[in-house]
Write a structure and sequence with these properties.
The protein is mostly beta strands. The chain is 3% helix and 58% strand. It has a single domain, classed as TonB-dependent receptor, beta-barrel domain (Maltoporin, Chain A, Beta Barrel). The chain starts with 18 loop residues before the first strand and ends with a strand.
Length: 622
């Protein structure tokens, strides 16, 4: 199992070899995957008290994810120093709709009902196309046909600042003692409420997930995926700024996706086809006063997205597998000024992508993977991307990896809505990334597991806004990021486990960017050093106790009041959890966040850390 802080919180037991999908879009052994891949088991994350996607991702090496004003609030997500808009979020391989800026509102997503989260760091556009410039997050649902632990689970949580949350899940199939399952369904719903610890920071959130599978033949499976989320939150503003929002500011967001698909698998062929449709809407009400007088932003942003994807891998010999794929996407955007009752911008963007890949076992210990892709677009220039990955088996459980790849981020609706500087067409933002790394995965849980990666990203054609042309968008900026990622996990004995993850990061703007980052300066808000370290003690079958520390240092932000860059204080966030197992599949748990009362901002100026908070939960299986 991969090294990751705070995730493996159940007592160590023998397990079958783990697998991942995100690196190749096909099931593969985790031990053979790049050390830039992390797999998070959701049952263990839930045991540790994690509830939001951003809180789980924040425990992985190479990724900085910070909620702006507490659990479930808006969050920033930086893969190896890239922007929040330069990553992709999937649900079982289907792309979830992103917002107008190309970023995902990851604070909307709850993790209950998922089976795992697979995180791929580094450029990945040769398989996933637009926006996979920094990395990919794939939210994996349970596989109803192969599930053995059937039934339901419920969780009730209460805590600080008016927090309460209720979650229910149920997994079923028609397997019997004599026959394997031919159909099954997994469904979950989550509802949470939080008064917030700041003025006007109330949050309500509802999510639902469903996956049904039908085996049509021994090799062919039909599946249907669905997701729904709805939320409303206050916008507390930035208390340190004279431009702080009024206390009646709010945001509503909702989204849904429905996706039927087919999977075919035999000894030589793996193939998949799916169609997905997704809708996402964000509605904002923000009023206040700035240097020019009173203002009101009462706007609604709607995105409707359709995708048709088909791909197949064919094993031509014992050592060679070749694959091809095609994707068609259509996105409709509508930006409305609700105060004026008009649409200020609408557009439909379409793209068509083709890719091919090869997987060649050159020797018993050497393996080469390569992929090539081209995407064409209706609204801007097309883009070709490629990837070459080499791995060397040093021992049965010890692998060395090297990778060079290119990727891109497509111009977002926000980049195009107000026109381009000089009427020139925009080019996609580009990244050429390289990495080398090691992965050691022990066959036994009572031994040391670890990953180590050195990486570098060269970012070009970054989109900026031209102040000499009414801040219209154009390609100008360049930047570089590089660093090291380390993950360690070890079960020292049956009662004691330790875990740690650390990332060093250096960023540099190679040109002036957005008027607030000058050539030679570091990119804003990215920490230069983070680490997560903790331990878990299991004295017997009933009790689990754990404590962990998250350290963040070396961040800078931009103060709009003074027009200067300012350093953010270093921060140490402690958390602890205790679980007690009752009879009949029942558990009670207590977790305490920010144990030491850290006040340093987790993300940006004005968004200081949530004070010490305690949460009590009860869960039961049925």
């Amino acid at each position: 199992m991969i090294c990751i802080l705070g995730i493996y919180l159940a007592q160590a037991t023998a397990q079958l070899p783990d697998t991942i999908v995100v690196e190749s879009r096909q099931t593969a052994p985790l031990v053979e995957s790049s050390p830039s891949v992390t797999k998070v088991t959701i049952s263990d994350a839930t045991d540790a008290g994690y509830t939001t996607l951003s809180s789980v991702i924040a425990t992985t090496p190479g990724v900085f994810a910070a909620e702006q004003s507490g659990e479930g609030s808006q969050a920033s997500l930086f893969f190896r120093g890239t922007n929040s808009s330069q990553s992709v979020v999937l649900l079982d391989g289907r792309r979830l709709p992103e917002g107008f800026s190309g970023s995902y509102e990851i604070g909307r997503y709850r993790i209950f009902g998922l089976s795992s989260i697979e995180i791929l760091r580094g450029p990945s556009s040769s398989l996933y196309g637009a926006n996979a410039l920094g990395g990919v997050v794939d939210l994996r649902l349970a596989e109803p046909l192969s599930a053995t632990e059937l039934g339901g689970r419920s969780i009730l949580e209460i805590g600080s600042y008016g927090r309460y949350s209720v979650a229910l899940s149920y997994l079923t199939n028609n397997a019997s003692d004599q026959k394997p399952a031919t159909n099954g369904t997994a469904v979950s719903v989550t509802s949470s409420h939080d008064n917030g610890w700041r003025d006007n920071s109330l949050r309500d959130n509802y999510t639902a997930l469903i996956k049904s599978e039908w085996r049509l033949s021994p090799h062919l499976v039909l599946d249907l995926l669905g997701s729904f989320d709805n939320g409303k939150s206050g916008l507390p503003g930035q208390a340190t700024s004279t431009l702080a929002a009024d206390l009646n500011d709010w945001e509503k967001d909702n989204g849904w996706m429905l996706s039927p698909g087919l999977r075919y698998q035999d000894t030589l062929t793996n193939a998949a086809f799916f169609w997905s449709h997704g809708d996402t809407t964000v509605q904002n009400y923000i009023d206040g006063t700035n240097y020019f007088g009173p203002y009101l932003y009462y706007q609604k942003f709607t995105l409707k997205r359709d995708e048709i994807t088909a791909f197949a891998d064919q094993k031509f010999s014992r050592n060679l597998t070749l694959g091809v794929g095609v994707t068609f996407e259509s996105c409709y955007f509508d930006q409305q000024d609700l105060a004026a009752g008009t649409s200020t911008w609408t557009d439909t963007m379409e793209s068509l992508g083709f890719w091919g890949r090869a997987d060649w076992a050159a020797t018993a210990n050497d393996r080469i993977k390569a992929s090539l892709r081209h995407d064409s677009f209706t609204d801007f220039a097309g883009k070709s991307t490629w990837e070459i990955n080499y791995s060397r088996k040093l021992t049965k459980q010890f692998y060395a990896h090297a990778k060079v790849a290119t990727s891109y981020r497509a111009p977002s609706a926000n980049d195009l809505a107000y026109g381009t500087s000089g009427g020139l067409p925009l080019r996609p933002e580009s990244n050429r990334g390289s990495e080398i790394g090691l992965r050691y995965e022990s066959e036994k849980r009572n031994r040391l597991n670890w990953t180590l990666v050195a990486f570098q990203n060269e970012l070009t054609d970054l989109i900026d806004f031209d102040p000499s042309d009414n801040y219209k968008s154009f390609n100008i900026a360049k930047a570089e990021t590089r660093g090291l990622e380390l993950g360690i996990e070890s079960q020292l004995n049956k009662n004691l486990r330790i875990f740690a993850a650390a990332t060093t990061l250096k960023t540099e703007a190679l040109s002036d960017y957005q008027g607030i980052v000058l050539k030679g300066q570091a990119l804003l808000r990215r920490p230069t050093f983070t680490y997560n370290i903790g331990t878990e003690f299991t004295p017997n079958d009933k009790w689990i106790w754990g404590i962990a520390l998250n350290h963040i240092q070396g961040r800078e932000d931009f103060d709009w009041d003074t027009g200067t860059r300012v350093p953010l204080p270093n921060a140490n966030f402690w958390r602890t959890w205790i679980r007690y197992t009752l009879s009949n599949g029942q558990e009670i748990s207590l977790r305490i966040e920010n144990l030491a009362g850290e006040t340093a901002p987790p993300s940006a100026l004005g968004y200081v850390a949530q004070p010490r908070s305690a949460y009590l939960s009860y869960s039961a299986k049925f």
